[in-house]
Amino acid sequence: ISGNTIQNNNTLLEGGGVRIINVDMLDFDNNTVSGNQADADGGGIYINNLKGTNAENFIRNNTINNNIANADNTGANAGGGIWANSSDVSIINNTIADNDAEEGGGVVLGQSLVASAVISKNLIMGNSAVINGGGMHIDNGIHTVSGNVIYNNVSSDPGASHGGGIDVHEGSITIINNIIASNSSYKWFLNLPGVVTFDNNSIVDNYVTKQTGGFSPPAIILTQAASMQQNTISGNDSKTGSLIAYLSPTIATDMSNNNFLNNSPGFLVSNPPTGVTVIAQNVWWGTAEAGLIDLLVSGDIDVSAPASGVLISTPISPPTGVSAVAGNGEITVNWDANPEADVAGYKVYWGNQTVPDIENVQDVGKVTSFIISAVTPGVYFIAVTANDGATSVDDVTTLVNEDQTAGTESWFSPIQQVSFAEADLAVAISSSASSVVVGGTVTYTLTVTNNGPNIANNVVVASTLPNGVVFSSASTGCAETAGIVTCNLTALDSAIPGNSASFDVTVNVPETAGAAMFVSSVTAAEFDPDLTNNTVSIDTTINAASNGGGGGAFGPLLLISLGWLFGVLPVRRTSKA
């Protein structure tokens, strides 16, 4: 089944868009399954009892979005995007987005104990479940979940929901090399009782909120993981003061070699039953001090030999402290340096679409600031990633960035949003006199006008004083530094288009005659479509003081005295001083 658009269908039973059962082999490739509804399981695709292996059955390269299971809101029907049961199938390189179900908003793998599915290189994002598994719900089986981006999914019931990202009930599940980011739930955002291996994942910026009834839930539950190693657990928030990771293992667990960074509250608690060993060595807890580490753990857990610093063997963490500030036609992005010792540089992503589809990227090197220039009006999303300089393994033919899922490039920092409106500002200038005598003063009046079409915010007028001119005074809101007078026009911060504001700058002119040019320019946060009216100048002529014919005030007196002495001047003398 290839190259089809299966859209806006509905059924009272299973499989709102597609229902496939009892086939020998399946290749469901390059289709769009969108806007379908089922009152039972499988809003988009329903699969049951495939006969082949996961090397023979494929759901790949499809867009599966905006489908609904349990459309009649009765029962606990599951699999908004895909419902697969009793089937060995490979679900690869699909966009599974914005689907909805009572359970398993994106993907559901059913109750077969022996089914073996591979879920790899998919974008599973924006899906919603009422109770369990906003992104993915696994009932049972022997499955591998690898190389996926599981992002921004939610389980929404305040009284019962858990597993905003992944919810596993039972089975033998391997979860490796995934990005699990920005998922949310009222209980744990990862519910993983059936997981035996949970390695090399980036668990970033997820959160849980307090469940109805006052229970403060943990964020991650593992009960039978033999290995939870080399994960980066960064920036997660439980909202209620509950724990970031909670282990109640039924078998020996090795959770060594993990990084815990910037989590809230940042605790790890283990309460293993008698005779079960939990090893957590070479873990970076945010500190290497034994006394402080003891405050971060509870129960019988071996935290000996902690890491002395942030590990570089785990996926690199996203940058923190990111800010994006709009200027006139540009955005200045700043961030904090990453704590990993092997950071080689950063990439800045920006565009009119958000993660993970941001259009533009620039490798900016090992710096912590970058200016995005030539920005036109619109809404921009900005994020920063860090990388460790490893050779790229990204396959451009897949939906996911393999550098991110492999951990050599971090997941995105929290998204910054900047709105660029358009406002045409103009500045005009006049002076109290076109000419002035040396040593005098002149006052310049600047008028800034917003010609629209939008409000102008953070308006700044900068004026350069001519050489030799000495600043005297200026209107409120202005200040002079090193010959530059800067005025912040708060009067235009909330002005409607067409409004204007004026201010005065008074200067003392030099003692030397000549010409002085006063230059002013205006900027704002909004994009200015016409920069030809943003700078203005005015010339002022500085005249020498008049002395009536030269020689200064003593010239006529000297001539009179000499005339009397030599008898060459008349007795009466009229002179012009």
Q: Strand content of the residues, in percent?
A: 35-45%
Structure class = mainly beta
Biggest sheet, in brief? 11 strands, parallel
End-to-end C-alpha gap: 108 Å
Global geometry: elongated
Could you describe the 3D structure shown?
With 577 residues, this protein is mainly β. It contains three helices and 55 strands. An eleven-stranded parallel sheet has the order 3-7-11-15-19-23-27-31-33-36-38. Strands 1-5-9-13-17-21-25-29-32-35 form a ten-stranded parallel sheet, with no helix packed on it. A seven-stranded parallel sheet has the order 4-8-12-16-20-24-28, with no helix packed on it. It is elongated.
Per-chain topology:
Layout: E1 5-7, E2 10-11, E3 18-21, E4 27-29, E5 32-34, E6 37-38, E7 45-48, E8 58-60, E9 63-65, E10 68-69, E11 82-85, E12 90-92, E13 95-97, E14 100-101, E15 107-109, E16 118-120, E17 123-125, E18 128-129, E19 136-138, E20 144-146, E21 149-151, E22 154-155, E23 166-168, E24 173-176, E25 179-181, E26 184-185, E27 190-192, E28 195-199, E29 202-204, E30 207-208, E31 220-222, E32 232-234, E33 245-247, E34 253-254, E35 259-261, E36 268-270, E37 278-279, H1 290-296, E38 297-298, E39 323-327, E40 330-334, E41 345-351, E42 360-365, E43 369-372, E44 378-387, H2 402-405, E45 416-420, E46 423-431, E47 435-437, E48 441-453, E49 460-464, E50 470-474, E51 478-481, E52 484-488, E53 500-508, E54 514-523, E55 535-543, H3 555-566
Parallel strand pairs: 1-5, 2-6, 3-7, 4-8, 5-9, 6-10, 7-11, 8-12, 9-13, 11-15, 12-16, 13-17, 14-18, 15-19, 16-20, 17-21, 18-22, 19-23, 20-24, 21-25, 23-27, 24-28, 25-29, 26-30, 27-31, 29-32, 31-33, 32-35, 33-36, 34-37, 36-38, 47-55
Antiparallel strand pairs: 39-40, 40-43, 41-42, 41-44, 44-45, 46-48, 48-53, 49-52, 49-54, 50-53, 51-52, 54-55
